[in-house]
Amino acid sequence: MITRRRTESIIKVWRDSIPTQTTMTRAAKNNSRPFCKRKQTSDRRSGTSVKNGAPLFFILCFFGAAVPFSPGKQFHNTACCDKIMLMDMNEITRNAEREYIRWSEQIREGDEYYEEFRALVDNPEELTDSFYCHLTFGTSGMRGLLGPGPNRINGIVIRRASAGLANYMNHRFRSPSAVISYDSRAGSAYYARETARVLNGSGIRTWIFRELTPVSCLSYAIRTLKCDMGVMITASHNPKIYNGYKVYNSEGYQIVGEEPESILNEIEKIDFFDAIPYNDDGVLTVDPEIGKDFVRSITALSTRIEPDRLNQLKTIYTPLNGAGRKYVRQVFQSIGYKNFEIVRTQEYPDENFPTCPQPNPEKILAFNEAFRRADIAGGDLLIATDPDSDRVGAALYHEGMRTLLTGNQLGVLLLDYLCHIRPPRPGQIVAKSIVTSPLGERIAERYGMKVVNTLTGFKYIGDLIRRLREEGRPEDFYFGFEESNGYLLSPFISEKDGVSSAMLIVEMAAFHKSYGKDPVDRLNELYEEYGICVDKIRNYYFQGVRGRIAMEKIMEYFRGEIGDSIGGRRILRKIDYMEDTGLPRADVVQFWLENGSTLAIRPSGTESKMKIYSFETEDFTSVEREIIRIIEKYR
């Protein structure tokens, strides 16, 4: 154990070295809940209260707010803040110190991250960031850096979240059940087992996969086992220093609506060091037949290209050291596809992702090893899935140049191919997010389909599928996609699926190759047929609280001060999704400009950055310059 006296003495030495300023040393990490001003709230344990108007720090947030720490106290959740206030940095530091000291009385040698915990006393900036707040349990669970402290992913945080989830399930369901899976990240298998033990110890019938699986297989298992909820331990495409905790409902998509807040309320009733029910006996193992059924269900979705035609295409596939290898390989073999290779350096699970520090198939750097293999062995197409295999990307050599297909371009190509091979019925539905290419909408309308736009996040497409099931018409769903490389070609699950999408990408590319074209050639034909629509995503990064203030001011400008034009282009229409639009409120503003271009602006929900989405029908230089001018004005 680290003694309280030693901890306090060391902290006292470095406390004075931290400058007094109204700014944070680091931005609130992914899904962190900053300190919030709130109405008077009684503390259940001590009877103390936080008075209305107390000078507590908070920042603009998207899925929740942050909870300040004080020894022995637990605070309740507050709604998202809509104005930014600042508190002296010393108060933030003192809050972190007090919580660190409280943890030091519980952490013992041999515990997870014990050495890292001890080392924090020599790193005041890291200590403050690890302890000044705790990770939020937001609309899709938690995500954060691995390490000690309440603002990190570790066993203490995972067990507390699982205990809160268990309490919620026991209150809501008569005989609750859950299934748990995980990806290849550091700690994923351990945290999945800890989650299973806590749920099982709370009387919840609990299954766990015996090996890592794609998140889409978890979604399939939830519905197959008729479970009430599911948990996936993953940080998706983030770098190796991250992990996370995603929660799924009985329909197999990430929780939406009031459910995240209800679960969060249960979590916040639990102290990090409360005794938590915990039992390994009775945890069930998912039958391997479910994985086989999952593969068979995907194979049934094949467009059935003749094997000889299909195998004219050479594919280099990489699972990026994640969960996709087994399932993508089996699906390829099931449809008779043999002409593929798996990148050896990225074939098997590896928590360090040694050849791909950021395993994100949206980025061309993730394809470096695949391109190297293609240079040696040849290859018409490169495919990559991220560690939990819900996202898939594609790249190729086009006219000798390394070319990455954007998430929008790939989605449009898949939709176009499906419409040719499997013509839709009039009135069937194509679902896409509001920041996804309008080119897909033009194609869908050409075939008489209805387009449903949702907020960003595939869970909203999953929620649409739920409504269709309830109305007895799930077959009306034709295709769903989002700009961040998520696709779904059947409502047999309710989550984006990199496995079935990899199959469809191969079939699409093989189809076009049989006509002497590659996917880029077909994309250019679509531009000629439907009009040019160049999609771009621009990221503008900010730091700390001042950056959050700047982002809020930028959003206020685009909401009310932008005028009737931008960059010399007349604004024909504007939608502010914080207003009543028929969709859940979201911090997004979207513009339709003359000549058919569109523009969307939103702050990221997980990083301190602005995301600018544009769909351009002609030169966009003047608009881009105007956006940069506005951002620099407030930066």
Q: Which range does the strand content fall in?
A: 15-25%
User: Quaternary arrangement of the chains shown?
Assistant: single chain
pLDDT < 50 runs, ≥5 residues: 13-86
**Average pLDDT over all residues:** 86
Q: DSSP helix count?
A: 19
Q: Structural class of the helix and strand makeup?
A: alpha/beta
Q: How widely separated are the two ends?
A: 45 Å
Q: Kindly report the spatial arrangement of strands forming the biggest sheet.
A: 3-7-6-4-5-8
What's the CATH topology label of the largest domain? Alpha-D-Glucose-1,6-Bisphosphate, Chain A, domain 3
Quick one: biggest sheet?
6 strands, mixed
Residue share in helix: 25-40%
- Counting DSSP E segments of at least 2 residues, the number of strands comes to 23
Write out the CATH superfamily name of the largest domain. Alpha-D-Glucose-1,6-Bisphosphate, subunit A, domain 3
Determine Rg (CA atoms, Å): 25 Å
* Count of individual domains: 4
CATH level-two architecture of the largest domain = 3-Layer(aba) Sandwich
CATH class of the largest domain: Alpha Beta
Report on this structure.
This protein is of the alpha/beta class. It folds into 4 domains: 1-134, no CATH class; 136-286, Alpha-D-Glucose-1,6-Bisphosphate, subunit A, domain 3 (Alpha-D-Glucose-1,6-Bisphosphate, Chain A, domain 3); 298-531, Alpha-D-Glucose-1,6-Bisphosphate, Chain A, domain 3 (3-Layer(aba) Sandwich); 534-634, TATA-Binding Protein (2-Layer Sandwich), CATH 3.30.310.50. It contains 19 helices and 23 strands. Strands 3-7-6-4-5-8 form a 6-stranded mixed beta sheet, with helices on both faces. Strands 18-23-22-21-20-19 form a 6-stranded antiparallel beta sheet. Strands 10-9-11-12-13 form a 5-stranded mixed beta sheet. Mean pLDDT is 86; it is low at 13-86.
